[in-house]
Design brief:
By secondary structure, the protein is mainly alpha-helical. The chain has helices spanning about 15-35, 40-50, 55-60, 60-80, 85-105, 120-150, 150-160; strands spanning about 5, 10.
């Protein structure tokens, strides 16, 4: 079988192709929750000159983000590349969203028992922002992983190792 030398680790070409397919699907799924709220907002801005952003939509699309992050983690493990960054991002994403939900329930914001203001709202919003930031880290890491697994990059790595 033919092997490629990739960052000091022998990776089969079949493994690279599968890892790249997983990474492309994963990065697409990871970007959907980030792009989905922006597109309607821009359309509304152009048509009505009013900017409204549904900042909760990335949290509502968590299953899509989790599927994308899971596929990226699988691809990273197969490629032996960017595992830590994607893994920490995935853990941070899940933890921040869970923390946001738990704090919203614990403070009474989820049920409407308390007024959405003050430190309670700040806490929930900050955790939601951390969720979006972690999702952004995963999505960018996915792009870097796809770039690492690209055929052109594999050819450069192989020719450099033969010298």
């Amino acid at each position: 079988m033919q092997y490629d030398d990739y960052e000091g680790v022998l990776v089969k070409e079949k493994n690279r192709v599968l890892a790249r397919a997983l990474a492309v699907i994963g990065v697409t799924l990871a970007w959907i929750p980030l792009v989905a709220p922006v597109v309607p907002s821009l359309i509304r801005l152009v048509t009505t000159r009013v900017f409204r952003l549904d900042y909760l939509m990335p949290a509502e699309l968590f299953p899509v983000a989790l599927a994308g992050g899971g596929l990226l983690m699988w691809a990273a493990i197969r490629a032996r590349s960017r595992q830590a960054l994607i893994g920490w991002g995935l853990g941070g994403m899940v933890g921040a969203l869970a923390g946001s939900q738990i704090s919203a329930i614990a403070t009474g914001l989820a049920s409407g028992a308390t007024e959405p203001s003050g430190w309670r709202l700040t806490l929930v919003a900050a955790l939601l922002a951390l969720y979006v930031l972690a999702l952004f880290v995963i999505a960018v890491s996915g792009i870097l992983l796809v770039r690492d697994l690209s055929p052109a990059r594999a050819d450069v790595d192989t020719s450099a190792s033969r010298s």
